[in-house]
Structures are given as C-alpha cells and as structure tokens.
TrEMBL record:
InterPro entries: DH_E1, PDH_E1_Alpha_Subunit, THDP-binding. Pfam families: E1_dh. Residues 45-314 form the Dehydrogenase E1 component domain. The keyword Oxidoreductase applies. This is Pyruvate dehydrogenase (Acetyl-transferring). CDD domains: TPP_E1_PDC_ADC_BCADC. Its cofactor is thiamine diphosphate.
Length: 333
C-alpha cells in the first residue's frame, strides 16, 4: 500500500516539530532549577515527561484522524497533542503555568486539554482509556463515524482500566483504538520484569478483537496498521489494540538518573532514529528532495520557537486570576 505524498510530508514535518519541541524543553526546563535532579520551580514548574524518540506512535495514528475524532493521552502527552493539532502556543504557555495556557496555567504539562480538537490527557496511568471508551460510546449513540483513540504506556496495559476498557469496547463494538507505546520501561521497571506476555497486542485475542504489533518504531508500518484500525472503527466493526515498540531517548522524567539503563543503550537507539529513516525513505521514493525537506524542518522549528516565545512573554496568573474557574460560581441572593 503506497502512502500518499502529502501524508508522508505531514508525518515528517510533524515528527521534526515534536522532536524539536521536546529537545527545546530539555534546555528550558532546567532554567532556574537546582542541578542534578532539577529541583525548584524555575521557568517551567512541576515534573516534565518528554517523548523524544516516540514520534511514530503519534503521527502514524493522527495522520488518519479528523478534528471530530477524540484522542486521550497519558502523562507523556506532547507528541500526541502536537500530532492532533493542539494549539502549540497555548499548550506551551500551559506548561509554563501562564494565564494564556490551555487551562490558564492551572493544569501544567500532564493535564493538557483542548476541546477545539477533542484532545485531553489525564496524567494518571491508564486513565485515558475509559475516557476514550466513553467518547466512542457517544459517537456510536449519535450515529457518527467519529473514532476515539487512547494512548498509553506498556505499564498501563497491566492496569484494570486497560482490561475493563477493552472488555466494554469489544462487547459494544465501539469505534475506539487502544495504542500501547512500549518504550521498554514502566518508570524504571523493564517490561520483562512486569509483563507476562511478550507483547500486549496478543491480549486482544482475549476480547475477540484484532491486535497488531508494530516493530522497531517504524512510522510507515504504524501508518498502515493505523489506517486499517481507523477504517474498521469508522465502519462500525469495533475496536483494535495496537502496540508499537518505540524508544524513549530521555528519562522517565527530566532529572531521572536512569541508572536502570544499559550502558550505551540510548546511543544505540539513536542509530535507528525514526525521523532519519523516514527522511531517507521520502528522498529515495522521490517524494521530496533534501532542499524541500529542509524547508519543512525550518518551518516546524519556527513554529516551535514562536510558541516558546509566546509562553515566555505571557503573564503569570496573579491574585484572584489564580482562582478563576477553580470554584463554582453561585448566583447572588
């Protein structure tokens, strides 16, 4: 199956945008913090979980989605948000805790919410899967062909929410897709020490639904598998479970000492970088040349730089602004 040229170009530009956004955050996040464990409020408050290396999971699915489709994400959500089309400036401002953010600076990076493109992340392991099932149920009851997608890490596949969500989705033939991003570690625990099966895709059989494994962080295969799953959901044929073997270049959180990693593990993974692999494919297939791709890269980086500038220039919520929309407003009298 040939992937349309416009889709390939969108995937490449979006993957570059995600990577540059995350790598920029690596630098910005340390500003004003104590070294080693990044302690202190700094420019960007709270913890920070980055997804550099995991771009194929997000773009492979979102290349097939519409604005009306729902996406829920876990606590490592930026790649999903960017691929779904979340407003990049307001998303960055939210991470900075500024009042121009998606949640007026109250949610931070683990609680991004953009109803304009039907995107949310809960920040709690596995919590996005029941939400996606609820959205899919609504879609079915309203006789639309909209779909819902829930992203989660491989650790979440051992939670009750995963199994309960799959059971209901299969029982009611809901238009939902569960995407498990296997980045090899649940915090610091290797998958081999926490999960009884070799891959979570085979768990689909227990619920009578299709399961697919995408190996080696392959964006092209992720696109193809996702296309079949999304089309199936739109036809009313029910859910699909997908697991992608992906890479986490950075720690579980910024400041993570990563003592659980093997020596040279990350440098070995970077030799198989999915962005470079997609770039070679696009050039070899004659879809675009180096100069055209350089233009896409420059545009993606400009958008990211503008988002960071917007966030820096935005004001912190002050006084009563910090409590706006926190407490329910009551009528007078």
């Amino acid at each position: 199956m040939a992937i349309p040229a416009d889709k390939l170009m969108w995937m490449y530009e979006t993957m570059v945008k995600i990577r540059y956004f995350e790598e920029t955050m690596v630098k910005v996040y340390t500003e004003g913090k104590m070294p080693v464990f990044n302690i202190g409020a700094g420019t960007v408050p709270g913890e920070m979980h980055l997804a550099a290396g995991q771009e194929p999971a997000a773009v492979g699915i979102c290349a097939h989605l519409r604005r009306e489709d729902t996406v829920t994400a876990p606590h490592r959500p930026h790649h999903h948000a960017i691929a779904k089309g979340v407003d990049l400036k307001r998303m960055t401002a939210e991470m900075f805790g500024r009042k121009t953010g998606l949640g007026k600076g109250k949610g931070g990076h683990m609680h991004l919410f953009d109803p304009g493109v039907k995107f949310s992340c809960s920040g709690i392991v596995g919590a996005g899967m029941p939400q996606a099932v609820g959205a899919a149920l609504s879609n079915k009851m309203n006789n639309t062909d909209w779909v819902a997608v829930a992203f989660a890490g491989e650790g979440a596949a051992n939670s009750g929410a995963f199994h309960e969500s799959l059971n209901l989705a299969a029982l009611w033939k809901l238009p939902v897709i569960m995407v498990i991003e296997d980045n090899a570690y649940g915090i610091s625990v290797p998958k081999s020490k926490s999960t009884a099966v070799a891959n979570n895709a085979i768990r689909a059989a227990a619920y009578g639904i299709p399961g697919a494994l995408v190996k080696d962080n392959d964006p092209l295969e992720m696109y193809r598998v996702a296309e079949e799953a999304v089309d199936r959901a739109r036809r009313g044929e029910g859910p699909t479970l997908i697991e992608i073997e992906t890479y986490r270049y950075l720690g579980h959180f910024q400041g993570d000492p990563e003592v659980y990693r093997e020596k040279d593990e990350v440098s070995h993974l970077r030799q198989k970088d999915p962005i470079e692999r997609l770039k070679r494919y696009v050039v070899e297939q004659g879809v675009a040349g180096e100069q055209e791709l350089a233009g896409l890269e420059a545009q993606a980086k400009r958008e990211v730089d503008e988002a960071y500038t917007f966030a820096r220039d935005s004001a912190w919520p002050r006084g009563e602004e910090a409590l706006e929309d926190v407490f329910a407003k009551t009528s007078e009298g």
